Amino acid sequence: MLKEYKSLRKNAQKEIVIEKSTFIGTAQMIENEEQALEFIQAMKKKYYDATHNVYAYVLGDDNNIQRFSDDGEPSGTAGIPVLEVLKKNDLRNICIVVTRYFGGIKLGKGGLVRAYGKGAVAALEASEIIWRRLYQVVEVNVDYTLLGMMQNQLKLAEYQVKNIRYDEMVHLEVYVLDSKTADFQNKVIDWCSGKADLKIIAEEYLIEEC
Fold first, then answer.
1. Mean pLDDT of all residues in the chain?
2. Start-end of CATH 3.30.70.240 domains in the chain
3. Segments of the chain scoring below 50 in pLDDT
4. pLDDT tens digits for 137-165?
5. Contact between residue 30 and residue 91 where contact means Cβ atoms under 8 Å apart
6. Where in the chain is CATH 3.30.230.30?
7. Which is nearest to 68 in space by CA: 90, 100, 98?
8. How far apart are CA 8 and CA 28, in angstroms?
9. What is the 3-state secondary structure (H, E, C) of 136-153?
10. pLDDT of residue 186
11. 195, 146 in Cβ contact below 8 A?
């Protein structure tokens, strides 16, 4: 699993007008090629009366799958500019469809490249680029007498507590950055003078601002 990667806060779209043509950029998070194709078909169905529905998507930890379509625009003027926006922003597992309603003014090849690039950028601006970073969920088991101290230390050290369960002992579930689990373990042992039991119970990606 990747330790971190850039993604989107949400799926979104944004409309812009260039030389009387309307461009609608729509960005969608995807997990596989099947989802990408389903999304593209959904956009084509929704905007069935559009002049073009251009798309590009990237998939895989190393962006090893890259696909695009000019959808009838001159070769290299539409799909590639959208793909380049995804690559420039180092995004993974994202598909963008830029829909065009022709407004009567021809843009020329250079104008099309810029317009479709702007349509893709608009979609990303609406979706908001963020980091997804891999965290371990570490369960810390302590006696009730140590609860107050543990909560205070975690707060001071700016650790995020996911959940607290109570039975014979207190079980604190704490988000710890994947690369910092050993450091966290040493801190807890020091705080509790060795009177704590720790174990990793899950892995989750958390959203952080770029």
1. 96
2. 131-209
3. none
4. 999 999 999 999 999 999 999 999 999 99
5. no
6. 4-127
7. 98
8. 8
9. EEEEEEECHHHHHHHHHH
10. 96
11. yes
Phi/psi of residue 11, each to 5°?
-80, 135
Q: What is the pLDDT of residue 37?
A: 98
Q: Minimal CA–CA distance to 10: which of 99, 126, 133?
A: 126
- Topology of 4-127 in CATH? Ribosomal Protein S5; domain 2 (3.30.230)
pTM of the model: 0.89
Say if residue 190 is exposed, middle or buried (CB neighbours under 10 Å; 0-12, 13-18, 19+).
Answer: exposed
Q: How many CA atoms lie within 13 A of 118 on its CB side?
A: 15
| CB contact burial 90-112 (16+ within 10 A = b; e otherwise) | ebbbbbbbbbbbeeeeebeeeeb
Separation of alpha carbons 172 and 150, rounded Å: 9
Alpha carbon distance 150, 170 (integer Å)? 10
Query: In this structure, which CATH number among 1.10.10.10, 3.30.70.240, 3.50.50.60, 3.30.420.140 belongs to the domain 131-209?
Result: 3.30.70.240
84: tokens are: 């380049």
How many alpha carbons fall within 13 Å on the CB side of residue 141?
8
Place of tokens 């169905």: 45
